[in-house]
Automatic annotation (TrEMBL):
Cell division recorded as keyword: no
Chain ranges passing through the membrane: 41-60, 75-97, 151-178, 190-207, 243-265, 271-294, 315-341
Protein name per its UniProtKB record: Uncharacterized protein
Keywords from the UniProt entry: Cell membrane, Membrane, Transmembrane, Transmembrane helix
Membrane topology note: Multi-pass membrane protein
Native source organism of the sequence: Taibaiella soli
GO CC list: plasma membrane
Source superkingdom: Bacteria
Localisation: Cell membrane
């Protein structure tokens, strides 16, 4: 059938007929005919199953490896499990806030209900576990949505990433100020000045992003992203402030979880000083390059360096760090990996 169709195109070619274009259309039609509905369903299941299995296997290997490193034969603790329960209860609050923030961002590009925002967010976490510093989270969310206006979603993703980055830098400045007072040193002062400058730059760029976007369009490579400026003008200043407040609130929830887990593991730290050191912990984790599946070792070293100032309970610090990682990354990534099994890779 394909050969006859091609002959018909070439032999009946007349003036004004684009043979190459007709041939391309014929190829597309033949391919669509091969990929009937049942075939697409099977391919979707195979692709989704392969991706889900790979991510779940990676999660299992990493958790198993880290538990072996942390585990100490005969170690036990007498911590009150109510602190662990409270930390776990904060997980859906944290996930819900981020899903709501993503809904606010994506709504300016396309209508998105809260349920779809949640599943997209979880899929993004699953994708992020194999990328440096979890940069694959927003691309994963966009890929899961599978919509035509991808450039607009990229725009709002940039805005959301800058809001969360500001939260980390803002509290990082507070933590570094405390550290410079408590443990003064030359490099500590340098880090404080650099972090303060970056924080000012990020918030300026965030609040005036729609003014910077047209300048980016003058660069040849960025011209195809001209929807940046057109889209972000739809955000009012109040919208941007609300997104920023949600990012700051999420940060406080992360900090509360870590404090609860440290208390659960009998790591004795003062409330105010512990919170300020926690802000340094999250700041350091954002600044140090790492892959989510391998970052637990980095988290453990950073946690020991910071919290050993207050407590010699190194095992407790490591387990609290692992628990925070598992609650906020492993469990949501596992849910996201299962969702990817049902994702329609071909439409």
């Amino acid at each position: 059938m394909f050969v006859h169709g091609y002959k018909a195109i070439t032999h009946n070619k007349g003036p004004g007929i684009d043979t190459k274009n007709n041939f391309r259309i014929l190829l597309q039609n033949e391919f669509k005919g091969l990929l009937n509905k049942s075939t697409k369903i099977w391919i979707n299941y195979l692709l989704g199953g392969a991706v889900s299995a790979l991510l779940i296997w990676s999660l299992y290997r990493q958790v198993y490896s880290q538990l072996n490193h942390i585990g100490t034969p005969g170690f036990s603790w007498a911590g009150n499990t109510i602190f662990l329960v409270f930390a776990l209860l904060l997980m859906p609050v944290n996930l819900g806030l981020e899903a709501y923030k993503w809904k606010l961002l994506a709504d300016t590009a396309q209508p998105l209900n809260y349920r779809k925002a949640c599943t997209s967010y979880l899929a993004g976490i699953a994708f992020s576990i194999v990328t440096p510093n979890r940069i694959g989270e927003y691309p994963g969310r966009i890929l899961y949505l599978k919509r035509k206006n991808t450039l607009r979603l990229i725009s709002v993703s940039v805005l959301g990433a800058f809001a969360q980055l500001f939260a980390v830098l803002f509290f990082g400045v507070v933590g570094l100020l405390y550290y410079n007072i408590a443990y003064p040193g030359f490099w500590e002062k340098v880090l404080f000045v650099v972090c303060l400058g970056c924080t000012i730059g990020v918030i300026y760029f965030y609040l005036r992003f729609e003014q910077w976007a047209p300048k980016l369009q003058k660069i040849k490579w960025f011209r195809k992203f001209k929807t940046y400026g057109q889209l972000l003008k739809r955000f009012s200043m109040q919208d941007q402030v609300n997104i920023l407040l949600l990012s700051l609130l999420r940060y406080l929830i992360f900090s509360a979880q870590f404090m609860l887990l440290l208390t659960w593991m009998n790591v004795s730290i003062p409330l105010v000083s512990g919170f300020l050191m926690t802000t340094l912990f999250f700041w350091a984790m954002a600044m140090i390059p790492s892959v989510a599946l391998a970052e637990l070792g980095v988290r453990g070293q950073v946690g020991l360096f910071l919290f050993n100032h207050f407590s010699p309970n190194s095992i407790g610090i490591l387990i609290a760090t692992f628990s925070l990682w598992a609650i906020n990354l492993v469990i949501p990534a596992l849910l996201g990996s299962i969702l990817l099994f049902r994702m329609r890779w071909l439409r």
